[in-house]
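Protein modeling request. Please complete all fields; requests missing the sequence field cannot be processed.
Requester role: graduate student
Desired output: 3D structure, token encoding
Chains: 1
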Amino acid sequence: MSLKKKSVIRDWAESIIIAFLLALVIRAFLVQAFKIPTGSMRMTLIEGDLILVNKFVYGAKIPFTNLRLPVLRPPKRGDVIVFIYPEDKSKDYIKRLVGLPGDLVEIKGGSIYINDQPAAEAIFNQIYYYNLGQFGSAGEKLIVPLNSYFVLGDNSVSSKDSRFWGFVPKNNLLGQAMIIYWPLQRIRLIK
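Delivered output (191 residues):
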């Protein structure tokens, strides 16, 4: 084999390895793609939507450790978040963040109450929330533990969320859903 041929093969191999490593770094620390499997977030997200999740914003997890990068900004009420499902660590879930650490959360008359006041964020006035599950009973007021979050699906009647299994530990957060990138007719920012 000629020296020139070895050089071309080596160049290709180096390019492929660099591209692969760059893709791993981007996926681990910056942005990851997810596919929406269920209708629990209808009409914000529907089955089959492909989305991009910003992992950097909440401090991406450093693979193979319990460490995280610094937080760009803390999660805020109304964010659509992706997290590791607390009851099965092999699954990722997507829901809307409702209760922050220390909040008193109640679902009353289809509305969300935070610290005995109707939730101020406009998105919560567009959704009827049902009193379902062990943690969503009528008249039940829950205090969100420190380093935890209370999350609900936008399709309240068919969402298995914090009303059924409790709180999401802060360490389970993966990132904030940013954009629907497929199908083409649904491309938009996620709000």
